[in-house]
Amino acid sequence: MWRSWKSHLAMALVSLAAAVYVCQGLWRAPYRHVVADNVSDQGQFEWMMSYGVYLLQHMSNPFFTTLLNAPRGVNLAMNTSSTFYAVLFAPLTHFAGPQVTFVTILTLNLAGSAFVWYLFLRRWLVRSGLAAAVGGLLFGFSPGLVSHANGHLNWTSGWMVGIVAWWVLKLPEKGHRVRNGVVLGLLCTMGFSVAAEALFFCALACALFLAVWALSKPGLRAAKESAGRVLVSLGVTAAVAGALLSWPLYMHFNGPLKFTGTGFKMRFYSEDLVSYVAFPLRSVAGLFGWGADLAPNATEATSFLGAPLVLLFAVALGLLWRRSSPERRVTLRALSVVGLFFFLLSLGPRLRFMGEEHSDTPLLYALFVDVPLFDSALPVRYTLVVVVIFAIVLALLVDEFVTRGLLAKLTVGVLVVAALAPIAPLPLRTLERAPEPEFIASGTWQDYVTGDGVMTSLPLSIDVAVDSMRWQAYTMARGGDAQFRIPAGYFLGPQDYLETGRHLVGRVGAPDRPTDKLFYKAARWGQVPRITNLDRAQARIDFRYWKLQAIFLPAEVTGPKGPLNRDALLRLTTELLGEPEQVQDVLVWRITPGVDPVDQTEEG
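Structure tokens predicted for DUF2079 domain-containing protein:
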């Protein structure tokens, strides 16, 4: 027993050390550094963590808010609100800030994913702690999870999937029908909040695995013997999860500002067939220039397992099949079917090969594009289930040979190292972002808006500029009754606010208004057109719509790859509203809705 606990402790420490290594750039300066490949998603998750403090303090709606996108609001149930994390880590967010909460959760997610899958493998599939460790580390620090560490607290939560799958396998136990059902129901409720899309993948994979397994002779015998217990437990699970998730599910499927599907293009977010055998850019192989740029973006590089690992997986599957008992072959068959099914789904509705889409070659996912739940999932993310299958098969291979002769052990060891070393991750890239203005940190902003008033920094928050959300988030995290609202924001919402918007695919951010487009073009590309009184009249309309009371411009403005064009924003806003007021470290323009900006005499 003590030996097992020593092994568990060693694995936990190794996993934590590896996670700190990957996230080291954020830990060096959590208040200034941001993941370089996904600045905006980190800002969005920091907002979500801060909303947990606001939620507990004000007992507000966890699934809808008007703090963003004033005056319309945002349906948080249709976004990655991560209420579980936000509430659980609210004390840390309040005392240390959402920046520290973000990197803490990210680090624990990577370490926890490796450790939980190590425990899963050791409990259900392998005898050797070394074999379980190999599988756990492969999944927890796979290119896919490390890629998602660029801003995604939801998709790095692989530990959640492991725990849910663990409890699914416990359902046939005798004498614990109600307990197992209640626990699984609570886990599903937690999983829905942590990563609803991943929970759907887990449920789909478990159902497919059990279906294939049950169709075999050994599986059919076991299914007949345990069917009653499993059905009772699943009934309890449905009752518990249904009761606890009734409100968020209603908000998701029928709540205000709902939309259909997702705000991202599925055909773009699909795996390139070659990416499975390619190496990641941020890996040891990538360090030597062997990485391939075939992913939709740096956060969705979910495959990139490398040719050596893919080849080893195929060889391992063949060796294990030859050496396995009939019962183990059933497991291998079920794992293979699940892996193949999710591999095909990950390729998306049309074949992508070497960066080119072949629109005349439809694939399996084309049948599921409009199917509920499938229509809200990005194909590229199905790869993470394939990675789980790779981790399991590799663990089984090591387990099979770890007790063999020295030559066999050395051979397998060399092959495993050769397959895994090239895809070993490098630390996340980071860059500096704009520091919080003293105007916000000191609370001076309260002199410029009424209670619950609307204020924004420039440009308005969008997917490539989330500073305004950050300043609001840091204010929420500190607590207190005073809080401002902001127009627009980085979120998923409907195409429009009519009934038609509920039936169209979603979009990123609020529907465009002319004035925020002016601010965006100035910030992103430095475009400052000649401002006319017609532009000022439109600005009055937009300011009145937002109920905007103040605009401020900090000394630095963060963009997706570095600073945005502050000088262009200053020129544009001065043309609209006149000279600003210098307040501490920001420039402020007060807005009287319906009055500002005032028309100016135009020449010629």
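The CA atoms of residues 357 and 458 lie 38 Å apart.
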